[in-house]
Design a protein that fits this description.
single chain, 271 residues, seven-stranded mixed beta sheet, 8 helices, 31% helix, globular
Length: 271
């Protein structure tokens, strides 16, 4: 979706929103909170080769430069390590070549907010987000709705659970449930879209809601806190590359120590 830019007497400036936390790369450009462009790339594993050329094409169509962005909303996780790093590295580069401030946005909150906006879910409605984390594990977090014009607010921390345990946590409650975990573990989440299981109890599963809607992306970006600093990733679990190393004296254990030291060291230019 691309729309023409309209002149405005007052503007927050050009804003870029980037999300690659799961299988879809989402790129949105707004000005004064009005959408100018929104692209979704359903190309799992190819976001790294797509993002930069896509941004170049968007800037050409809108007749803007990458350095013109004033604010960049970065979805920092939890989700794909590669996707998160790609978004944060791109935003960091744009900040260094322009004047943009960056905001750290939460991916699970975007999904919960999408559910709230789709169903006009009012306070104190509950939303549970269940997304794929790795084989036999899901990210699980509870949110509370304050209505469709306010981002859903977290009511718990992110947890890593087995799918059956996540399902057990949302039984017998009036709530919305969404996220890629429903699709990935469909053999467990086979209940109909609405289940009545007792007086006042209502569970509404939303298996089609696996990616945040544009409205939710914009709402979270509008409420983001922007700073002239890079955004830190939100990893809810350990790095596969590190955890898969076999601990051996003087081998993998030494590699792990070196990785930990590198990750704690601030990047410095060698030029």
């Amino acid at each position: 979706m691309t729309t023409s830019r309209a002149a405005s007497g007052y503007s927050t400036g050009l804003e870029l929103i980037l999300n690659a936390c799961e299988s879809v790369l989402q790129i949105a450009v707004t000005e004064n909170e009005k959408p100018l462009c929104f692209e979704e790339w359903f190309a799992p594993g190819r976001a790294t080769e797509i993002l930069a050329p896509a941004l170049e094409q968007i800037c050409m169509r809108l007749a803007i430069r990458p350095g013109d962005f004033r604010r960049i909303g970065c979805f920092a996780g939890p989700g794909s390590f590669t996707g998160i790093r790609l978004v944060l590295a791109t935003a960091a580069a744009l900040r260094r070549t322009g004047r943009a401030r960056l905001a750290s946005l939460d991916y699970l909150q975007a999904l919960a907010t999408s559910a709230v906006m789709r169903r006009a879910w009012l306070y104190p409605g509950k939303v549970f987000v269940v997304t794929h984390a790795r084989r036999d594990l899901v990210h699980f977090q509870e949110f509370v709705s304050f209505g469709p014009v306010i981002p859903a607010q977290p009511a718990s921390d992110v947890e890593l659970l087995e799918p059956a345990a996540a399902l057990g946590r949302i039984q017998e409650q009036r709530c919305l449930v969404c996220g890629s975990g429903l699709e990935r573990h469909a053999q467990l989440f086979v209940l109909p879209p609405m289940k009545e299981s007792g007086q006042g109890s209502q569970i509404q599963f939303m298996p089609d809601l696996v990616n945040p809607d544009l409205g939710a992306l914009r709402l979270l970006a509008r409420h983001g806190d922007y700073f002239p600093a890079d955004v830190e990733p939100k990893y809810a679990r350990g790095c596969d590359a590190v955890e898969n190393l076999v601990e051996r004296e003087g081998g993998a254990s030494q590699t792990v120590k070196q990785l930990e030291a590198i990750l704690k060291t601030s990047p410095e230019s060698r030029i």
